[in-house]
Specification:
single chain; two-stranded parallel sheet; eight-stranded mixed sheet
Length: about 350
């Protein structure tokens, strides 16, 4: 073909060329099946009813009410094989409608229509910690978080919106992907992006990190493992999700992040057993107009936050995820009638339930 895309001076036989044209006209063939995995438990806690940012002429800082959500224990549940035939026109995040088995998925551009289908059974290992998990095809770290194209919104110009979206993703990285924080460190970078004038949130963060309990649990915002109990396997955390934005109250830029993270871990004392802790977070923040709301430049107001987790501990409030090893823990006190798939991103995060339920896979 010449530079203009026409067939000029080609040595390709006519019948081959005609077959190529027919194939191009017919479009892609059968839709692939998005993979899935094996079982452990799901959990969460919910914080809703967004905080109101503080107007300039009001001197009482925002105090959002917090509603309890639900945790799920981390014991091994029964294997669930979910084979989902997907319409190529409706598969979210596949740029060309096809994604052969084993190839990385494109970024998630909107909520998927189905849960990922089942992966071939396989046990996670130190060398292959995402084996048997849909996360094996997810991107690494922040590469798995879709950031939309910016446009002028509310009080912000397009460039300012772009900067706010980037800083929101910086918060996600600092709170859920930073290696020092994952190893139990204090999330200073994440905290520095939070509006210091939002006093109740600052108090919650400070209390939860120093004296965690049921009402002050840092795992609602930050991912942390106790280095004396669990160690991270490898250098990769898989992530999948997206950031969206709209104009909020008082012309603010309201940004929502809905992301699932998959952490492979092994016992701190050694050994080759590998389990996965899976965490889905929905975080809503407001980048406020400093002419209307008391804020610090470069920081956001936290409006709401929800967390569901699998194999992170059931109703334990140590300030750390506590994955279970040795084939899972006791199912005492769990509600086996309530199940959830931690990889299913087709449903919005709900209000959840108290206590522990059962995950269909891990």
């Amino acid at each position: 073909m010449d530079k203009g895309g026409e067939r000029g001076g080609s040595s390709v036989p006519d019948e081959v060329w005609e077959e190529f044209l027919r194939s191009a006209a017919d479009g892609p063939g059968d839709a692939p099946k998005e993979p899935s995995a094996r079982a452990r438990e799901v959990a969460g806690r919910l914080r809703t009813e967004p905080a109101e940012p503080t107007p300039w002429r009001a001197h009482t800082p925002a105090r959002p009410r917090r509603r309890k959500g639900w945790y799920v224990a981390g014991f091994l549940a029964s294997l669930a094989l979910l084979v989902v035939a997907v319409d190529p026109g409706g598969v979210v995040g596949w740029s060309d409608g096809k994604s052969p088995a084993g190839e990385p998925l494109a970024q998630e551009s909107q909520r998927p229509q189905e849960a990922p289908a089942a992966e071939p059974a396989g046990r996670a290992t130190l060398a292959d910690p995402f084996r048997g998990s849909p996360a094996a095809r997810w991107a690494n770290g922040t590469a798995g978080i879709t950031v939309p194209a910016a446009k002028a919104t509310g009080w912000m110009t397009k460039a300012e919106v772009q900067r706010a979206l980037a800083r929101t993703r910086d918060f996600l990285a600092a709170s859920s992907l930073d290696r020092s924080v994952l190893r139990g460190g204090r999330p200073e970078k994440a905290i520095s992006l939070m509006n210091p004038e939002q006093q109740d949130v600052r108090t919650f963060v400070s209390t939860s990190l120093s004296a965690p309990d049921e009402d002050n649990d840092p795992l609602l915002l930050f991912s942390r493992f106790d280095p004396a109990q669990a160690r991270l396997v490898g250098d990769v955390v898989k992530a999948r999700g997206r950031i969206t934005f709209r104009e909020g109250k008082r012309g603010a830029l309201e940004v929502t992040a809905d992301v699932t993270y998959v952490y492979p871990v092994a016992p701190a004392g050694g050994g080759d057993e590998v389990v996965r802790t899976i965490v889905r977070r929905e975080t809503v923040v407001s980048w406020d107009d400093p002419e209307k709301v008391i804020t610090k430049a470069g920081t956001f107001t936290l409006l709401s936050y929800k967390t569901d987790m699998t194999n992170g501990g059931c109703d334990t409030y140590t300030g750390y995820f506590r994955p279970e090893f040795g084939g899972g823990g006791s199912d005492q006190g769990t509600d086996k009638s309530r199940t959830a798939d931690p990889y299913d991103r087709s449903k919005a995060m709900g209000k959840g339930h108290e206590g522990c339920g059962t995950a269909t896979r891990s």
